[in-house]
Amino acid sequence: MTQTDKHHRINKVTFAGFLVTLGIVFGDIDVPLYAMSAIVERGRSIPFLHWGTLGCFWTLTLLTTGKYAYLSLRADNNGEGGIFSLYSLIKRYSGSWLVYPAIIGGAFLLADGIITAPISVSSAIEGLRIYSPTIPSVPIVIAILIALFVAQQFGTQLIGKLFGPVMMICFTFIGVIGLMSLAQDFSVLRALNPYYAYQMIVDYPHGFFLLGAVFLCTTGAEALYADMGHVGRGNIRISWAYVKICLLLSYAGQSAWLMSKVGTTLEGAAPFYSIVPPVILPFAIFIATSAAIIASQALISGSFTLVGEAIRLNFWSRQKIFYPTDFRGQLYIPQVNWLLMVGCIFVVLYFRESKNMEAAYGLAVTLTMLMTTVLLTVYLYSRRVPIVLTALITLVFVVIEGAFFIANLEKFPEGGFISIFIGFILFAVMWIWYQGRVVRRSLTVMDDTGAVFKTLTELSNDMTLPQYATHLVYLTSSDSPKDRTGNDSFGSGKNAETGRCLLVSSR
Fold first, then answer.
1. Distance between CA 272 and CA 127 in Å, rounded?
2. For the whole model, what pTM was predicted?
3. Confidence (pLDDT) at 506
4. 150-207 pLDDT, tens per residue?
5. What's the rounded Cα separation, in Å, for the pair 128 and 126?
6. Burial of 318 per CB tally in 10 Å (0-12, 13-18, 19+)
7. DSSP per residue over 3-21, as a string?
């Protein structure tokens, strides 16, 4: 495929691509259930709960739209996206220090992802409490999660074809319901004025820490960039425009309903369910549950992709990878699958309810976003973007994401320590494996195949000689036949495609 063909594929927009993008990319975007619930939980002492609409609007605009949908999607590595692909794209332009933000970002993204499935499914199933307040949601959530992880080994091609239409219905539904609620009080739209954000932070002691709850609306932004290779840049941007409108209508509608409840004690289900007319509430619960399952599937598939890229970059030990279907980009890694399942079940058993999981959710992914910003800065510099503009862009995102990180630190003792602990373990595993590979490469002797290639060919064709599997000769690649240290991986240099080398293994 030529560069022109690749560029066309990345930017091509079709209706089918639009639907697939809704299912694959935006499956783990808040639908929105837990973001507004968290804002209410943490903002009870603030009389202006509709500032949650302000926070969600500007967060989705500056981070999800500005940083990811516009800027990050421009940094494609032969059509692929994600923090590891971004690292692969720019590592040749800087020193080996870039490996650290890449590993940190990947590790904490994977760690925070373990919370995504439990909180998504739990927040949806808890809608049943409208009919039965004492319903035990934990067994139902665990059963759904186990079924999802067991199904991975058989492939999800058939179910995957339904993801797009289901998410199309879901986003349209939450947008329409939000608009119906918003029609009762359009005054909440005043919150779109950024002045009120300043007022909230300055005038109310705990206003700043409300950002920790607001941040939940953009936790799926990293997946937006990571899935570029599956659906293309153009489809993501078009789909995001539609999704953003639906999300903002839902947030505004919930805020309008909350404004009518100021001064009262809120009990029961999430605000989202409260704005749904009772006659269609069962349909709303069904749609939310379906979206939660799709979000969980997006997490699992994204984790497989992330680990697969880590293996390719020598950040992770070699794993057996299966391709259960011919669905583009779908892979299955058994060990990762079962580890994720155990992690998700542990989260459900430990926190039990989605409102408790909100305390652990979002803290780790802020670190991933900050690491992505570091790599994007190097990318802009490598593309000769004016240094002043590069510094300005970096400053804006560091300030925003730094504020979210500080606000999310309040969650650390409430459960955030779990995702941070898991992230540190994953970082240690990746770093130790990477350093081990560096040491191994430093002790590996590379020989030019030119001097021995004729002899090897003759030996290979000589059937009179006994053949033993304990003596293996295979080709690999290196920056130079004389290279004894390497940089990041075999074949990582500019001339790797021309450097044929020989490795001899005997056991």
1. 9
2. 0.81
3. 41
4. 888 776 555 666 778 888 898 999 999 999 998 988 888 877 777 777 777 777 767 7
5. 5
6. exposed
7. HHHHHHHHH---HHHHHHH
Pairing of strands 447-448, 500-506: antiparallel
| Tokens coding 191 | 């919150």
The CA distance from 287 to 165, in Å, is 11
**Structure token digits, residue 4:** 């022109």
* pLDDT tens digits, one per residue of 104-149: 999 998 887 788 888 888 877 887 777 777 788 899 999 989 988 8
Q: How many CB atoms lie within 10 A of CB 385?
A: 14
Ordered DSSP codes for 388-400? HHHHHHHHHHHHH
Per-residue pLDDT band for 502 (boundaries 50, 70, 90) equals: very low
Return d(Cα 474, Cα 97) in angstroms, integer. 31
- Nearest alpha carbon to residue 82 among 371, 393, 430, 322: 371
How far apart are alpha carbons 507 and 405 in whole angstroms?
50
Q: What is the pLDDT of residue 498?
A: 41
Q: Is 395:136 a contact under the CB 8 Å cutoff? A: no
Burial status of residue 264 (CB atoms within 10 A of its CB: 0-12, 13-18, 19 or more): exposed
Q: Give ∠ CA 155-156-157 in degrees, rounded to 5.
A: 100
| Structural contact between residues 136 and 310, judged by C-beta atoms closer than 8 angstroms | no
Q: Residue for token digits 């000689």?
A: 465
CATH class of 3-438: mainly alpha
Q: Phi and psi at residue 25, in whole multiples of 5°? A: -80, -45
- Euclidean distance between CA atoms 96 and 98, whole angstroms: 5
* Centroid of chain to Cα 324: 22
pLDDT in tens, 302-329: 788 888 888 888 888 888 888 766 655 5
Q: Give the C-alpha distances (Å, rounded to integers) separating 40 from 212, 246, 461.
A: 12, 20, 75
How many CB atoms within 10 Å of residue 349? 12
Please state at what angle helix 51-59 crosses helix 233-259, rounded to 10 degrees. 170
In the sheet that holds 447-448, the strands lie side by side as 447-448, 500-506, 471-477
Q: What is the DSSP string of 21-50?
A: HHHHTGGGS--SSHHHHHHHHH-TT-S-TT
DSSP strands (E only) in 51-197: none
Domains of the chain: which residue ranges? 3-438, 444-506
What's the Rg (C-alpha) of the chain? 25
